[in-house]
Amino acid sequence: MIDLLNDFMVRAILAAVGTALACGALGCFVVWRRMAYFGDATAHAAILGVALALLFSVSIPLGVLIVALAMGLLVGALSGSTTTPDSLLGVLSHGALAIGLVAVSLMPSARLDLESYLFGDILVVSKMDLLVIWGGAATVCGVLAWRWQALLAEILSNDLAYASGLNPRRDRMLLTLLIAAVVAVSIKVVGALLITAMLIIPAAAARLIARGPEGMAIWATLIGVVAAVGGLYGAREFGTPAGPSIICFATAIFCAASAVGQLRKV
Amino acid sequence: MPLIDAQNIEIRHGATRAVFGVSLSIEAGEIVTIVGPNGSGKSTLLRALIGAIPTSSGTIKRAPNLRVGYVPQKLHVDPTLPMTVRRFLNLPRHVGAKAVRVALTRTGVQELDKKQISALSGGQLQRVLLARAILNDPQVLVLDEATQGLDQPGSADFYRLIEALRDEIGCAVLMVSHELHVVMSATDRVICLNGHICCEGTPAVVTATEAYRELFGTGTGGALALYRHDHDHAHSGDQACTHDHHHEHEAAE
User: What transmembrane ranges does the database entry give (chain A) (predicted)?
Assistant: First the structure.
């Protein structure tokens, strides 16, 4: 098994599958709560996290996690003021990306391969990265399973949740934290620009198939895993970048699911 | 001890005071209706009483481990969320298929349990929400504009159902209505709210001591009480207010 991990393709597949597992169920919440733009803002902040991690010599996933979390909390704190959330998210999302890009260019040793953080660099995944990805995926899925009932109730109605003795504010923070964690573990695989895609495309495809929330989460995870493996083989076959290839595969599944759904209606 | 006891509460939305100087308590088994025009703070007050929003001053005491059955004004189910009625009734606690069937039967919609929530009509959704609210054997049933979107016979049926459930479960009922002229006839107490409490009392007391003229049960089998509300009033009843104020309500006069 350890020998197997020395094969870069095996490591790449494990990394991609781990990312898909982390994104599947959480992506459903991003779709249900309409947090796609929120996910973008959090993911874009990751570039700044990379720059700061290099500046302060801390591990990159840790830097990304902290900055992505700070961004998530900032968005949470600011929404509800006079700026509409939509434009506010636009400002924060693109502002964070631009600041991150500028910060990276100002790094003294400009040896940083920016492209690998924007689009992912799955073929250089280390054993340590694998540990981070699978640890992150296990944490995200574990927390979602633990709070599943409460989180579902809160999507339907905050007031109903309060009347049942739940605390939607705390659980919203929890989702923010989980999204930040997913950003931190997926940046190596799909890159900051496509993390939101990895969250929402499998979930959106799963919606076309599922009749219940649990089914949708399971389908989203399966579709994500298939897209991860398929995209990776496609990338090797055609010499294309791995992250975008995975997203292309997921998009193709979404289109196929839509077509099947349309045919069923006829 | 009352189930819910609010003392001199104030609730702000930013700089505006939505509710102020309100004290009220709900006793076991009684039916209390809060009426008031749109924007009078009814829903805000209700949400504060169940703990969904904070008050800026005053205290709200709820009986320890109070079981609340809450029926919201509306439920927007995002079409991206697949959810059957049965699954919905199992949130946030699993109650099992049998309890779901019993609750849906009680509210007369047992055939809906496998339907998608997003495919229900307004009246069906109200009954599903009511079924959900009675699942935990509530001590108090809280309804926010429960008959919104229902026609008059539909409202009458719904009120009759609530009364029957109250008699069965023995819970208190606290509800809110903007239909100033239509108050459930079984109501023990009417609270007229416009930011503050303008007046309160039994429909009978209110109508006897105030200059309010009432008409009970015309054409709705006695389930609806028509409760006429005069605009420029100077009343001296139960908890009269002494200042001039105008209600901008849309009650059919």
Answer: 12-32, 44-75, 87-107, 128-148, 174-204, 216-235, 241-260
